[in-house]
Here is the input.
Amino acid sequence: MRYLRILSAVDQVAALLKEELLRGRWNGTMPGVYRLAEELNVNHKTVGAAMVLLEKEGLLKGQGAGRKRRIMLARDDAAPLRIAHLLYEQSDIHADYMVDLQHRLKEAGHIQSNAERTLVELKFKLSRVRRLVEQTEADAWIVGAGSKEVLEWFSGQAIPAFAFFGRMEGLPIAGVKPNHPPAFVASTRRLIELGHRRIVHLCRTERRIPAPGPSEQAFLDELKSQGIQPGKYNLPDWEDTPEGFQAILHSLFQHTRPTALIISEGFLFVATQQFLLQRGIRVPYDVSLICTDYDPTFAWCRPTVAHIDWDSRPVVRRIVRWAANISRGREDLRQTLTGATFVDDGTVGVVNGAQET
Here is the structure.
């Protein structure tokens, strides 16, 4: 399970080789795969796969079959970066991928800090973001789940910035995030196959304003393709506060009750479960629930929780490669999507007659 952060044999060998590279043990070219395999007492295929990971990080470069890999780390021109993390909200710092990312950036010699305030605390206001950036000593920024406006501002600055999720599409800024839209389509289609017609997606403000994001638009488009005319009922506006979330839930279940809810983020999912439990609304018998993100608490839930899952390891590797490029003075504006999958589990069920009334 990815939230346990268990490293594979390939990842462990890659980390060990990278540590020795950064210490300057080898110069020019790497030893051969078989020699390293014998030294480390592992299979040569494991070493070869680890070398490929280091190539993807930009530390090694292949020179053709039968030739040793070239070491790309020039210790005299790769300056450590002071990297500032602008988090979406404070709880992000405890996410497994953030812990892994900070560990790997530290291994690469970079100095990291978290900005004093998060985007949520700044209310995504550009004047506040600008002031925070001006007051923070940093050579580069990693911006978590930024709005279109925030990321557009960062893309126009001289200081390098990386979009860690967020509304990066069409902007000249490096970034990475899971490819959620196909998984949104799959989850929506599954609900419709089970007879659901009143499907509501509850997501944070920046995902629907000023316009629906790619995932939210994919949800609306799939409804339409299945003969359900989408509207504000399916993607409602609500005040992005605990009180506002409770208010939208009360409104939804007061009259035309939804038969299925798609909830963004684990803490909103928990709040929804509590709301339903207090009113005796059963999951999935009375309403089906899907969370758009994985949360480690789901593994302890019975029935298990339907959700959208993704592998954080390629995401972390992409950011580390970006930092390596920036530290060498290379421009890197590439945006990368990683795979995301809909996991159909115990909180999704068939519509019954009571739900349809």
